[in-house]
């Protein structure tokens, strides 16, 4: 989440601590409340959908009961609006007493009892985007508090902070969290605010202090929003690919499948592209009321396997012909001649008309193993076909949709 509000000038001494927490060796997966539930604090009139311990327990229950946890979705993430408007007399953050009557530690205990992990939200500035107490001036005490509550992920926003000082502020907070008594995945919005201010983020530095980082605008529940994020990633893809890897990932924001603004084909395109870009898969929807086709989409084992591939290489767009784009991501296993396998996404930006028939000569997109490939569609993995680099792969893709083909090097 990011509201571009006024900031106050902040300054803290800079300390060099390289992030070394052993977390996010593959992109984190889970559920995040913001896009679907935003800052709904009206528990009197909307008790099932307000930001409260009930909401996060409900979603944890669904992750387990409906099979998401078994596929890797393990984080339940609180976003903004969870706290009181003032810290306590000792300077510690206080969860809203009515909406979180048992406190965050009790909620963490419940989440952990389900075999899941709990994430929470703060801000690098003096206030959060919704006006609650920020962490500026309280980095050490907040890091210790989150560790005491047994939090597993911390998302740090950038409202009410000067983007020019984020190169100092985020490393200091990261160091405080990394020195706490608990391993906490550190999620930044550092580059988002800097690019919005016309600055050029230093992604190599950011990767030293953040496990994941938001690069661009908040996703909202519309196809136009998804396209704008994809375009930004294409424009910066070489820099983003160079910064990504095990323990440090670009974050294009939440998965929206199952909400109101995307058709099934559009949701499919987002999920496939986020997977090939090695992005966090943090869904923001109502798992208590999601249609089966969307649930099946985000539970597709073949797509998740691409996203979680142990090589940790981010994919990118490798070919474009009009409104048809070809994306490719190197994945395991390596063939006997040391060549990568690949996940190939064919993305159709056309918004009207019938499905497009796309032909791809494999060696034109970098697939050059002399031992050929075993290929299959991630929605029909039982149908395997052999293709060699000089062969032409043919794929049919609906408008505003995508298809993913796996090409495994033969051993």
UniProtKB/TrEMBL annotation:
Keywords assigned: Disulfide bond, Glycoprotein, Glycosidase, Hydrolase, Lipid metabolism, Lysosome, Signal
GO molecular function, one term: alpha-galactosidase activity
InterPro entries, A to Z: Aldolase_TIM (IPR013785), GH (IPR017853), Glyco_hydro_27 (IPR002241), Glyco_hydro_27/36_CS (IPR000111), Glyco_hydro_b (IPR013780), Melibiase/NAGA_C (IPR035373)
Any Pfam family hit: Melibiase_2
UniProt-listed SUPFAM superfamilies: (Trans)glycosidases (SSF51445), Glycosyl hydrolase domain (SSF51011)
GO cellular component: lysosome; membrane
Compartment(s) of residence: Lysosome
EC number(s) reported in the record: 3.2.1.-
First and last residue of the signal peptide: 1-18
GO biological process, one term: glycoside catabolic process
Alpha galactosidase A C-terminal domain segment(s): 312-400
Top-level class of the enzyme under EC nomenclature: hydrolase
Superkingdom assignment: Eukaryota
Known partners and oligomeric status: Homodimer.
Family statement drawn from the similarity comment of this UniProt entry: Belongs to the glycosyl hydrolase 27 family.
Protein name: Alpha-galactosidase
Gene of this entry: GLA
């Amino acid at each position: 989440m990011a509201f571009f509000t006024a900031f106050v000038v902040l300054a803290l001494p800079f300390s060099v601590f390289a992030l070394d927490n052993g977390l996010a060796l593959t992109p984190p997966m889970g559920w995040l409340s913001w896009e679907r539930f935003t800052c709904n604090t009206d528990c009197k009139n909307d008790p099932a959908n307000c930001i409260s311990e009930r909401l996060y327990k409900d979603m944890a229950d669904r992750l387990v009961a409906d099979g998401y946890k078994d596929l890797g979705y393990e984080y339940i993430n609180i976003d903004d609006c969870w706290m009181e408007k003032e810290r306590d007399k000792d300077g510690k953050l206080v969860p809203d007493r009515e909406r979180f009557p048992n406190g965050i530690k009790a909620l963490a205990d419940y989440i952990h009892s389900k075999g899941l992990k709990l994430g929470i939200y703060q801000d690098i500035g003096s206030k959060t985007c919704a006006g609650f107490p920020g962490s500026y001036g309280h980095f050490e005490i907040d890091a210790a508090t989150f560790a005491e509550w047994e939090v597993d992920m911390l998302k740090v926003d950038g409202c009410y902070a000067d983007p020019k000082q984020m190169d100092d502020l985020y490393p200091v907070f990261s160091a405080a969290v990394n020195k706490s008594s608990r391993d906490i995945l550190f999620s930044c919005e550092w580059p988002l605010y800097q690019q919005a201010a016309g600055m050029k983020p230093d992604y190599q530095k950011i990767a030293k202090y953040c496990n994941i980082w938001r690069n661009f605008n908040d996703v909202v529940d519309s196809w136009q929003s998804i396209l704008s994020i994809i375009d930004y990633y294409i424009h910066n893809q070489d820099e983003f690919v160079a910064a990504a890897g095990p323990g440090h990932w670009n974050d294009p924001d939440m998965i929206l499948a199952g909400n109101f603004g995307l058709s099934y084909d559009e949701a499919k395109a987002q999920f496939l592209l986020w997977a090939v870009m090695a992005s966090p898969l943090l869904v923001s929807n109502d798992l208590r009321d999601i249609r089966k086709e969307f649930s099946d989409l985000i539970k597709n084992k073949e797509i998740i396997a691409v996203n979680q591939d142990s090589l940790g290489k981010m994919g990118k767009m490798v070919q474009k012909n009009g409104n048809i784009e070809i994306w490719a991501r190197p994945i395991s296993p390596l063939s006997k001649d040391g060549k990568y396998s690949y996940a190939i996404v064919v993305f159709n930006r056309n918004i009207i008309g019938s499905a497009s028939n796309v032909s791809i000569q494999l060696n034109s997109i970098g697939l050059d193993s002399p031992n050929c490939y075993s290929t299959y569609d991630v929605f029909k993995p039982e149908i395997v076909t052999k293709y060699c680099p000089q062969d032409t792969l043919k794929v049919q893709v609906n408008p505003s949709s995508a298809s993913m083909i796996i090409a495994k090097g033969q051993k």
